[in-house]
Amino acid sequence: MKAKKRKKKKQKFGEKEMIRLEVFLTGGVLFLLFIFLVASFLIPRYTVLFLSNGGTQIPAQKIEKNEKVKRPEDPKREGYRFIGWYLEEDLYDFDSSIHQDLSLVAHWQKLEEYVEKIVLNQESLRLEPLEDFLLEATITPENATEKLVAWTSSNPKVATVEDGLVHALSEGNTIITAITRDGGLQATCQVTVQKKVLGITLLQSEYALEVGEKTSLELEVEPKVSMEELLYRSRNETVVTIEKGTLTAVGEGTTIVDIATPDKKYSAKVVVTVTAPPLEDIQIQGKSTLVIGESTNLTILTTPSNASFKGVYWKSSNPLSVSVDATGSVTAKAKGTSIITAWTKDGKKVTRHTITVRDSSTSE
Fold first, then answer.
1. Which of 56, 89, 136, 317 has the fewest CB atoms within 10 Å of its CB?
2. Dihedral sign from CA coordinates of 317, 322, 323, 329
3. What predicted TM-score, i.e. pTM, was given to this entire model?
4. pLDDT score at 231
5. Is the pLDDT score of 26 beyond 80?
6. What is the DSSP string of 178-204?
7. 319 to 2, 132, 295, 352: CA distances (angstroms)
8. How far lies 24's CA from each of 29, 99, 122, in Å?
9. What is the gyration radius of the CA atoms in the chain, in angstroms?
10. Which pLDDT tens digit goes with each residue over 198-224?
11. Are 338 and 316 in contact (CB under 8 A)?
């Protein structure tokens, strides 16, 4: 009985010790946590800003004293190569410890874009002595690194050039050349300097058109007269007509168009040649049913519509029922059916059309 009591007393002592131990450990953890929080407030933390200078944005960093800044991912910037992060004038050393707030700036190197082409706004010029004209050079690509252009005149006595401004001096011809500093690419403009001539000056004296085509005369008049005021005459209107300076090609052939000032003091003439594309096909168009005694005209459609065409011959397979003359006019004579044939005068194209004739008492 005594032994049993001693064992029970020992077990009760162990539970108390465990409670004291738990209280001790809990207090220790809280104390350590307190120390950690105090230390966190006492240890300085610095801010590092990354100024990308036109590149993609890079997040700022919070770094504790004596720690190292973490090297961020390189920013991106179109047309530039990233060199590095700089602290003022020096490349920043990411192996160094931090002791203050920092602002690191991205430095860049511009990538070279080379000139591929140069074009002038005029390929030719006509100027009077002492007249000026500004030539403009367009560089391709637009973002080329070096866009400087040098200007030269092949005959400075006729015209000079400075930064694209052409200054005419005396009658004659010269070539203005623009040369790129990058690659030595060139573009030229032919310059003619002459005094204005009284009268009609033809810029084009011969024209070649296709049937159905229209174009405007190219000329200059001094003293100034509008195109509508000039007098025009086509010597063959079956070939070409003209109205207010616009030529219209009517049929194949060659003719002359006369031009004169309103007072008929000055005149000029141009030669116009009209051609037509080759004929591909022909087709008869017209009625297919007639009554006895009725007449109608058949027409020929050509492909293309403005093709060269000299006319056709006509024939009826049953002239007792339907007759046809040389112009394509048909007349219904008696009940029946007839095939009308048309073929080109060179014999290369042929087409047919069927006509049925009924008596007058039968509806179509």
1. 89
2. negative
3. 0.41
4. 95
5. no
6. EEETTTT-EEEEEEEE-PPPSEEEES-
7. 156, 78, 13, 15
8. 9, 39, 97
9. 49
10. 899 999 999 999 999 999 999 989 888
11. yes
Name the token pair of 31: 């104390």
Helix (H, G, I), strand (E, B), or coil: what is residue 311?
A: coil
Nearest to 144 by CA among 119, 120, 114: 114
Q: What is the DSSP annotation of 77-118?
A: -TTEEEEEEEETTEE--TTSBP-S-EEEEEEEEEPP----EE
Token reading at 90:
């020096």
Within the chain, where are the H helices? 2-42
Q: Indicate the burial class of 17 (C-beta count within 10 angstroms; 0-12, 13-18, 19 or more).
A: exposed
Q: What is the pLDDT of residues 256-299, one digit of tens each?
A: 999 999 999 999 999 999 999 899 999 999 999 999 999 999 99
For 160-170, the pLDDT digits (tens) are 999 999 999 99
Query: Tokens at residue 62, please?
Result: 């919070």
